[in-house]
Design brief:
The complex is a heterodimer of chains A (about 230) and B (about 200). In chain A, helix 3 packs across helix 4. In chain A, strands 1-2-4-3 form a four-stranded antiparallel sheet. Chain A is α+β, with helices and mostly antiparallel strands and about 230 residues long. Helices cover about 50% and strands about 20% of the residues of chain A. Among the domains of chain B are: about 40 residues; about 100 residues, no CATH class. Helices cover about 45% and strands about 30% of the residues of chain B. In chain B, strand 1 and strand 2 form a beta hairpin. Classes of the chains: A alpha+beta (about 230), B alpha+beta (about 200). Strand 3 of chain A pairs antiparallel with strand 1 of chain B.
């Protein structure tokens, strides 16, 4: 005879087994959903918040850096025509000739005098710091009314020039033939009227100190396009 | 012999199981509910953040398009000022030249006129007649734009060159050639200019 002394183990009923496996399944699915969906959502929320923080900072700095006044492109163009922000000798050359055309007195010589560079712009201290002055020696030949016209047209020209020194001297026929052999073939020069030579010291200017300020707009826009 | 069952009576399976099952169920339900709640919260928060981001973007763009960088505006104003100062400092020669040349008789020859600085003009002129010289100087002196008309030098200059002129000679209508020397009255002046800007 065998004597069973072990107590019977409490066993789960079949229903309970099904129930527990269902719950286990749910837990597994839940964990999967957590990793696939919920945590990335949380992550993107964090990023969005950081983005907003960054934008708030940008807003602050933009508030500090901007004003509500606008300078139109036309205004800026007009100003930089009057005084450019970079050295613009090629245009100065063109302008000296243009004034000559306007006044009917052609320039015959244009040189830049040495030594009139930065620092010496303070000849008239009113020029302010940073303004660079360049001096040109321009010689123009023609008849008196045209030369006077040149002086006046230069003064009122689109670009700012200062006529510092000048001298008008008689140009005799002999001298004219020697120095400017083809002068009389020039349309502006008449044979019977007296000729004079006008020698001028002209100052031209440019503002390197404003170059960055006027170009900064593009830089700002470039940054905005990158962060957007 | 009868068999005597010494085993204890089968116990009913009263174990933790009954308490475990509902507990498990409740925990699961709570976990699911909590997650659902958080997902809803986060989703709403994300929407809010998205809206805030758009709003900030709009505001930033509005400020940027409404105006210009302070640096640029201030730079522009300073540049305008510098230009104004440069214009102030320069001399407009036309009015002075108008006074000087406008009063010249047509026969006068300009030998030279020059300005070495902004306040003084030097001239050398050849006049045909003495009277014209005095006349001219008086006119200059009257002009308010010319402050100081200083006579540097005045003399009658006889030209080295001779010209041949045909002049009537004798009473019989004959012509003779006479060589004459041209003479001019040379006038040299230093003229101070009035600076209407009041600096001088």
């Amino acid at each position: 005879m065998q004597i069973k002394l072990n107590g019977s183990k409490p066993s789960l009923s079949q229903g309970q087994i099904i129930f527990i496996s269902a719950i286990a399944l749910v837990v597994v699915l839940n964990v999967a959903a957590l990793f696939l969906y919920l945590l990335p959502e949380l992550d993107s929320l964090k990023q969005a918040k950081q983005g907003v923080e960054g934008q708030k900072q940008t807003l602050e700095s933009v508030r500090n850096d901007y004003t509500d006044e606008k300078i139109t492109d036309e205004q800026l163009e007009k100003l930089t025509n009057r005084v450019p922000v970079v050295r613009d000798d090629s245009n100065n050359l063109i302008f000296f000739y243009d004034v000559g055309q306007l006044s009917e007195a052609p320039p015959t010589l244009i040189t830049q005098s040495s030594g009139a560079e930065e620092g010496q712009s303070a000849e008239t201290d009113a020029a302010g710091s940073g303004t660079v002055t360049t001096s040109f020696e321009v010689t123009v030949v023609g008849h008196l009314p045209n030369l006077l016209s040149y002086i006046d047209n230069l003064h009122h020209y689109e670009r700012l020039y200062t006529l510092q020194k000048w001298s008008l001297t008689e140009l005799t026929k002999e001298a004219a033939n020697q120095e400017y052999p083809d002068l009389y073939s020039h349309p502006f020069i008449k044979k019977d009227k007296p000729l004079l030579t006008l020698r001028m010291s002209i100052q031209a200017y440019y503002f390197p100190q404003f170059k960055d300020a006027f170009n900064k707009q593009e830089l700002e826009k470039g940054n905005a396009e990158q962060t957007a | 012999m009868k068999s005597i069952n010494l085993l204890p009576a089968k116990q009913k399976s009263v174990s933790k199981n009954p308490k475990l099952m509902p507990l498990l169920l409740i925990i699961t339900l709570i976990a699911l509910a909590a997650q659902f709640y958080y997902v809803m919260t986060w989703s709403a928060e994300k929407d809010g953040v998205g809206r805030e981001s758009l709003q900030l973007n709009e505001e930033i763009n509005a400020i940027r398009s409404n105006g210009d960088l302070k640096v640029k505006v201030e730079g522009y104003k300073q540049a305008e000022q510098s230009i104004a100062q440069l214009e102030e400092a320069r001399t407009e020669w036309k009015p002075y030249l108008g006074a000087i040349i406008g009063n010249l008789p047509a026969t006068t020859k300009i030998v030279s006129i020059s300005a070495d600085d902004q306040h003084k003009i030097k001239m050398e002129l050849d006049f045909k007649a003495y009277g014209e010289v005095v006349d001219y100087m008086k006119k200059l002196e009257k002009d308010s734009k010319l402050q100081d008309v200083a006579l540097t030098s005045f003399y009658k200059k006889v030209d080295e060159q001779t010209t041949a002129e045909i002049v009537p000679s004798g009473t019989d209508g004959g012509k003779a050639i006479q060589t004459t020397r041209k003479s001019v009255y040379k006038l040299m002046l230093d003229i101070m200019l009035t600076n209407d800007k009041g600096a001088e």
